[in-house]
Amino acid sequence: MQGNPAQAKSNTPSDTLNAALWDEDIDTARRLARSLPAEALDKPDNFDCLPMTLAVLRGHLDIVGILLDRGVSPETREASGKTPMDWAVTQQNEYALEMMKTSVEDRRRRAAEAFRAAAEAKKEDVLYSAAENVQDNLRGKAGKRPKVRFKP
Would you say residue 92 lies in a domain? Predict the structure, then answer.
């Protein structure tokens, strides 16, 4: 991270939030973290610093928590290749790291549950469609070729 975000031309949501964090204007930072579009806060500012990274570096766990609750990923990489989780390890900020690990685990668990639910729904659709095809074939719909063919 280079430069002072407070001196940057503020043209992205990340710039705006990072300027408040840099200036230690925590009330404004909290308000911005809650109100700015979450997907925009997952992108770096003009200095290639993610808002979550700056919150970790400045020790603002409440801002880290707000960003995590909003769905901002602690695994997004900056151009340097580091993630906010990497910065938490570098800074030996065990609390921030634990918050981020828990968030990632919860996100992965929810994604796996959603995938399983979608797969189950798809399986039910396939079974229902196959059952309809079998019923149509057994009824011998006139003029239609069987939809399901079994090889001997």
Answer: yes
Distance between CA atoms of 141 and 43, rounded to whole angstroms? 58
| Residue 75, amino acid | E
* Closest by CA position to 74, among listed 51, 45, 46, 92: 51
Q: Which two tokens stand for residue 8?
A: 């940057």
Q: Judge whether 100 lies within some domain.
A: yes
* CA gap 74, 115 in Å, rounded: 22
**28-68 pLDDT per residue, tens:** 999 999 999 988 898 899 889 999 999 999 999 999 999 99
* Domain count along the chain: 1
Q: In terms of residue numbers, what domain contains 58?
A: 5-111
pTM of the complete model:
0.67
CATH number at residue 9: 1.25.40.20
User: SS3 helix, strand, coil % of the chain, rounded to 5?
Assistant: 65, 0, 35
pLDDT score, position 143: 47
Tokens of 77: 């990489």
Angle 19-99-42 (CA atoms, 0-180°, nearest 5)? Answer: 40
Q: How far is CA 65 from CA 4, 73, 92, 107, in A?
A: 23, 11, 17, 14
